[in-house]
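Onboarding guide, step 5: your first structure request.
Type a short instruction followed by the sequence, for example:

Predict the 3D structure of this protein.
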Amino acid sequence: METKQLAIQSFERGQSILERLNKLLIHLKLSQKGISDQQSAEEIKLAKATVKAFLSKLSTLVSSNEQDASALTGVDGRYRTLVHKFAEAKNRSSRYRSALFRKDPNIVLTMLDAPDGDDASKLIESLTEFRSLLEDHLSSDTRELIGEL
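The system replies with structure tokens like these:
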């Protein structure tokens, strides 16, 4: 598959994840402040499920890649790049300090099931940093599609 097509697929996938991630973050922040959220319970459920599935797959690929560099064979190039960026982010403690990058990402997956109290703050921090990483990744897809401006 050509580079442009992979960039398009990666961009579309990333935008979908980013949209759901933003919905989830809005919900969590409003809930933390005790403010009623206007999003439906189904939208929140879908957002959580999407983010969990994506983080779970990403975490599995990062873990596999750490054990065996050839473990990403068959994974499309753009997704492979995201896996490498995630792994690099785990080593950049100055920028990525949340539980998602400092500890086991499965902790964040568990927090998604029952965010309350201190865990809600940690979850928001983790998802916010993940959004930042995803936005950085998507900017390279955008450059691939429309070139440097």
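Each response can be followed by summary notes, for example: Residues 92 and 135 are 17 Å apart (CA to CA).
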